[in-house]
Amino acid sequence: MMKTTNYISLLFLLTALLSGCRYLTMTLEQVKSRFHTTSSSTTHRMERALPEKYGVLMGKVISATSTRKRLVVIAFSHELSRNTIGDYTVLPEPGPYLLYVPEGIYRILVFADVNDNFICETNELVGQHENPDFARVSAGEVVGERNIVISNARIKPFDSPVELNLSRGKDKPRSLEDGGTVHLDDEIFSRKIGSIGLWTPSKFIKEVGVDIYARDGFDEKKTPILFVHGSGGTPRDWEFIVNSVNEDCYQPWFFYYPSGLRLKILADLLYERLDALYNKYKFHQLCITAHSMGGLIVRSFIDRHEFNAPGYDLKLFVSISTPWGGIDRARSAKEQGLFVFPPSWKDLASGSEFMDNLFQKRIPPEVNFCLFFGYKGDNLLLKGADDGSVALKSQLDFRAQLEATRSYGFNENHVTILFSEEVFARYSEVLYKTARCQEKPIEPRTTDSKKTE
For residue 87, what are the CA distances in angstroms to 126, 187, 380? Predict the structure, then answer.
């Protein structure tokens, strides 16, 4: 009886702590769900692996001509039995692909479903990654640049056809890298899809992918602002702020990702996607705005950005309601071990290895880092002041404060802080002082905020 009571209590705690994320739907069945890919062949199935044992393979399928047929990119295990699939993805045309696989060695092949029967047959093999022949991925690693060129050259034979449960639904939206545009009211940005990204990231990757999207095409005269949502969120979280930004000066971009993945993987994916955009568009400056857990991902990304010194300058980083000190209840849930929770929560837990390593390097002085926090909350499960989801002491962790150029406090909770005119007034002020497009900031309509140097 006591064990059942503890289970329910912890489930309630987790629900309450996550309730501030706008696009989160959680049920008991979702909590009990396991995280694994659903890829299969007719006779084989990839052995179940724990989430922390997964990594990412990514690259591009390149073709000089249009195939006019759906392409299927498959990672076959080199270590397990024949036709064992680690993951696959369906592309409506040549372009970027991403596979979420258990650690191991894989052969990556591309099939063209010529006869539209949703079966990858021997004569439909059109490309493979060849240099090297096999791709090795470790747990938590992002392996990029596994590009595949479709050609008529001789390809190593493939043993037998593989039948896949391919989606017959709508095609994935085209990313900014592919020259596509999106609307924030598109179905892909619904709370249901955001929840899938939290609880079953492998399904999210298969149906949505991990990419950067934009409402308009790239414009070299405008400064890009990348918006990064939080746990269970989607780009739709940013609708109020984005609709208020002067788009004569700025171009909003959105990093859309499955928030259940480990945070280091997500930071690496963010780096790879931005690097691909830079290689294509050669933008000069970038501003980033992140909410909640998204701020942790961006902070980890900044370390790699600084180390690799890409061709663009990161001018501004605004974090909003980010748990810089971690979440105590996530640590408690992990220690109790009474239910399954998203892999990302292992990193969100206060005292986790990810949190301990987050501030090993300082943010470069040329990056204007502004810390926004909220204090309008009354969560009985949190000690001290909070914003309804994250404790104030975590939002104002001293390590983040030491790096911040300025900190701004608002009488808002974890959700309303993204829909506040006062918050946007301060945000507009920050943009004015940082970005090259010198629009005049709007005047705040209220004065209920705190500003610290």
Answer: 18, 24, 42
User: CA angle, corner 75, sides to 167 and 182, nearest 5?
Assistant: 45
**Res 246: pLDDT:** 86
No. of helices (H) and no. of strands (E), the chain: 13, 19
Tokens at residue 32, please?
Answer: 């009990």
28 CA to centre of own chain: 24
Confidence of residue 340 (pLDDT cuts 50, 70, 90): low
**Cα 61–308–275 angle (5° rounding)?**
30
> Residue 360: how many CB atoms within 10 A of its CB?
7
Looking up tokens 């747990």, which residue turns up? 139
pTM: 0.79
Of 308 and 449, more confident: 308
Cα distances (Å, whole numbers) of residue 303 to 57, 285, 336:
22, 17, 32
Measure CA of the first residue to CA of the last residue in the chain; give whole Å.
52
Residue 124, number of CB atoms within 10 A of its CB = 19
Burial of 65: CB neighbours in 10 Å, binned 0-12, 13-18, 19+ = exposed
Q: Give the integer Cα–Cα distance in Å for 424 and 417.
A: 9
**Residue type (1 letter), 149:** V
Q: Where are the alpha helices (DSSP H) in 106-258?
A: 191-199, 201-207, 239-244
Phi first, then psi: give them for residue 239, nearest 5 degrees.
Answer: -55, -45
404 CB burial (10 A radius; 0-12, 13-18, 19+): buried
Q: What is the pLDDT of residue 420?
A: 93
Is pLDDT larger for residue 200 or for residue 240?
A: 240
Helix (H, G, I), strand (E, B) or coil at 364: coil
Length of the chain: 453
Question: Strand pairing partners for 89?
Answer: 73
How far is CA 324 from its chain centroid? 18
Q: CA separation (Å) from 255 to 85, 144, 210, 298?
A: 28, 18, 8, 11
**Is residue 343 a contact partner of residue 394, using CB atoms and an 8 Å limit?**
no
Q: What is the DSSP string of 83-111?
A: T-EEEEEEESSSSEEEEEEESEEEEEEEE
CA 400 to chain centre: 22
Q: Which domains does the chain have, with CATH numbers?
A: 51-163 (2.60.40.1120), 187-452 (3.40.50.1820)
Give how far Cα 80 sits from Cα of 45, 83, 84, 114, 122, Å.
10, 9, 6, 28, 20
Between CA 264 and CA 430 the distance in angstroms is 28
